[in-house]
Design a protein that fits this description.
about 200 residues; mainly alpha; 10 helices
Length: about 200
């Protein structure tokens, strides 16, 4: 049985196995983007992927692993769109780039990613990586938007400020819908970034 299991894992890591895994993950991520995380199960994921739960367990280490990987996939999609929005026009200030990301951050799949953060806060022992991975995914993009002449410490400090502030805005947008309050906060953030860039 051990040898058989090892053989399965070896074949799952083959190029064909990896391609199949990516295909399944795309389908599960698409389903999550529409229906959210509530009542997520292997059975529901299998239906979305057009397969069986046994096939999913062949490619993923259980439902938590599949859920985490699908959330990471959704987040990567959002980050790619946000980066495209931030860089689509050439020479813009850091403040302008950050502001241009906001419509993407509150786009169609944002509610699912907000649920993931809530799930990590609700059951940190089980889903902590859903929150930890968010910072690891977003920071490289925010660092890349900082001026090239800044040293690494300055880039990191500003990127962390942007990340924490945008996360706060997203929670406010999701929980209160106070667009005027968020806009006021954005104005203050953008002024701070403009001052930082001019310093």
């Amino acid at each position: 049985m051990t040898e058989e299991r090892t053989g399965y894992r070896r074949s799952a890591k083959s190029p064909r196995g990896e391609a199949r895994r990516r295909e399944l993950l795309d389908k599960v991520a698409d389903e999550l983007g529409v229906n959210g995380l509530v009542d997520f199960s292997l059975r529901r994921a299998a239906r979305a992927a057009g397969t069986t739960h046994k096939v999913l367990l062949y490619h993923f280490d259980g439902p938590e692993d599949l859920l985490t990987q699908a959330v990471l996939q959704l987040r990567e999609r959002r980050i790619s769109r946000a980066l495209a929005a931030a860089t689509e026009q050439g020479d813009r200030s850091l403040a302008e780039r950050v502001h241009s990301m906001w419509p993407t951050l509150i786009g169609a799949e944002s509610w699912v990613l907000d649920q993931a953060i809530g799930l990590a806060m609700y059951d940190a022992g089980r889903y902590a990586d859903l929150a930890r991975s968010a910072s690891r995914q977003y920071l490289p993009t925010l660092l890349s938007l900082c001026p090239d002449e800044w040293d690494e410490q300055r880039k990191t400090e500003v990127a962390e400020l942007i990340l924490a502030t945008l996360r706060g805005f997203l929670i406010e947008w999701r929980t209160s819908g106070d667009a005027a309050g968020i806009e006021a906060g954005f104005a203050a953030l953008l002024r701070a970034l403009e001052r930082e860039e001019q310093a």
